[in-house]
Structure formats: structure tokens, C-alpha cells
């Protein structure tokens, strides 16, 4: 899985490091969640007709390695791509992609969640890429958005209609939870020295 807030920039030409393409085995699946993909009016209109530049570069990189794009879903700047090795394709069923807006009371797609769910060798999996409210003092709003997505994001049919009905849920993205009250220097030194216990009490998650 990859999660990356790309801050409206275009994709790099070389994704070798990001996707660990030098691994001779290669993963069975690639699930790529991006946030803040550029979605200006002209670009977004173009992307609804043609694949956006990020999707294009991932497809052109992975297709020669026998990966197939199984599904994708986009909500303005949120993008989720699901690739699998060709050999696994016959064992994927019940693919659905959907999204839930949380930005500006659900009317604007600048924040929210995009999801792909499927049956993989009989196991129901759900992948959810989210971008929640930013800024230090919006921790409770982030929790509200998490609960809103859990409640409102629904799939068609009786087989695992809700997020929590799946055997495995992978929830990732730019969740924007922060470590309060500590400066960046202190946080970095704790991480470098692996003194994580000093950070837990101030971790909004």
C-alpha cells in the first residue's frame, strides 16, 4: 500500500523507489491512495474523460510487469488505484468502488474517503483512502469525519454492505492527526531515539 499527499504536483517520471520495483518477486497487489491530486476546473474536466496523469504513470509503470488495474475511484483530489498481478485476476469478485464527502458538510469533495472493496480468494477486503480535516485544533472534527465515513459509506448488495462487515479493512491516507504541545525538534529526536512512549500521551490518535 502507498499513501501520499502529492500537494497538487504532477507525478515523477521514475516510481522505482516508491513501488520497490527492484524486488524480484514483487507484491501480489498494489493499492495506491493519493491525496491533493490537482483538480483545478480544466484539469478535473479533462480527467473525467481521460485518465489523470497519476493514473497514467502508475499504469504505464506496472502494466509491463504484468499488473492489471482492477479498479479506481476519484473524489476531486482523492484518488485510489487497485492493481493486482495478472495471475490473481480470476480470483477477484464483487468489486465495488465508492466515496463519501465530508468537506463543507458533505457538499464539497475536498475531504472525505474513497474506497474499493472486493472478494480476494473468498475473503472480503476493503481499502479506504481518506483525507480528513487539517490543523492542530480540529482533532474532534477528524473523529467526527471518521465516524461519518464509517456510517455513510455503503456498498450495494447484502455481502458486506458496511465497512466493518469486511474481513479486513485497510484505512489509510492523510488523516491529519497531530502530536500536540511538542516542537518538531523534540518529536524528531524522540523518533530517532525510538522514545515513542514520550509522544503517546500527546498523540491525537
From TrEMBL:
InterPro entries documented for this protein: Endo/exonu/phosph_ase_sf, IP5, IPPc
Top EC class for this record: hydrolase
One Pfam family per UniProt: Exo_endo_phos2
GO annotation (BP), single: phosphatidylinositol dephosphorylation
Domain (Inositol polyphosphate-related phosphatase) ranges: 2-203
Gene Ontology MF: a single term: phosphatidylinositol-4,5-bisphosphate 5-phosphatase activity
Enzyme Commission number: 3.1.3.36
GO cellular component: endoplasmic reticulum; plasma membrane; ruffle
Name of the molecule in the record: phosphoinositide 5-phosphatase
Native source species: Pogonophryne albipinna
Taxon lineage: Eukaryota, Metazoa, Chordata, Craniata, Vertebrata
Amino acid at each position: 500500500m502507498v499513501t501520499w499527499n502529492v500537494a497538487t504536483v504532477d507525478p515523477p517520471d521514475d516510481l522505482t523507489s516508491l513501488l520497490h520495483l527492484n524486488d524480484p518477486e514483487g507484491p501480489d497487489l498494489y493499492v495506491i491512495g493519493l491525496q491533493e491530486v490537482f483538480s483545478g476546473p480544466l484539469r478535473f474536466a479533462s480527467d473525467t474523460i481521460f485518465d489523470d496523469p497519476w493514473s497514467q504513470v502508475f499504469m504505464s509503470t506496472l502494466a509491463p510487469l504484468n499488473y492489471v488495474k482492477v479498479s479506481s475511484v476519484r473524489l476531486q483530489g482523492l484518488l485510489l488505484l487497485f492493481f493486482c498481478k495478472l495471475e490473481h485476476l480470476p480470483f477477484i469478485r464483487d468489486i465495488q468502488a465508492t466515496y463519501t464527502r465530508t468537506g463543507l458538510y458533505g457538499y464539497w469533495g475536498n475531504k472525505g474517503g474513497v474506497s474499493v472493496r472486493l472478494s480476494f480468494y473468498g475473503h472480503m477486503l476493503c481499502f479506504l483512502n481518506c483525507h480528513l480535516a487539517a490543523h492542530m485544533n480540529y482533532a474532534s472534527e477528524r473523529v467526527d469525519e471518521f465516524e461519518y465515513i464509517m456510517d455513510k459509506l455503503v456498498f450495494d448488495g447484502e455481502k458486506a454492505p458496511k465497512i466493518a462487515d469486511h474481513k479486513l479493512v485497510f484505512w489509510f491516507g492523510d488523516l491529519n492527526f497531530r502530536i500536540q504541545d511538542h516542537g518538531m525538534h523534540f518529536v524528531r529526536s524522540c523518533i530517532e531515539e525510538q522514545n515513542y512512549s514520550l509522544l503517546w500521551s500527546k498523540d491525537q490518535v
